[in-house]
Amino acid sequence: MNIIESVVEMAREQRRKADLKMFEASQAAEPDIYKMADITLDVAVSQALWGTATTLVKEVTEPMKQIVNK
Q1: Is 23 left (phi over 0), alpha (psi -120 to 50) or beta?
Q2: To which H or E segment does residue 52 belong?
Q3: What is the pLDDT of residues 7-55, one digit of tens each?
Q4: Which residues are CB-contacts of 41 (< 8 A; sequence separation ≥ 6)?
Q5: What sections of 1-32 are H helices per DSSP?
Q6: How far apart are the first and last CA of the chain?
Q7: Is the pTM of this model over 0.85?
Q8: Which among 65, 64, 57 has a CA at the least distance from the CA of 7?
């Protein structure tokens, strides 16, 4: 598995964790501000990882395009 696939898998796993926590929070009788903050953090980390993967793809594909187009 290359680094981009690893980052994408980490992003997916982080999002799964956030979704599971969100489901559990929705089943609670009262909202828990700390649980919601934890969910928000998981979503933010997931989005940051997706951004990292996107940047890595761009950094790899742009030089390859230049080589191919020469």
Answers
A1: alpha
A2: helix 33-69
A3: 889 999 999 999 999 898 888 888 888 888 999 999 999 999 999 989 9
A4: none
A5: 3-27
A6: 30
A7: no
A8: 57
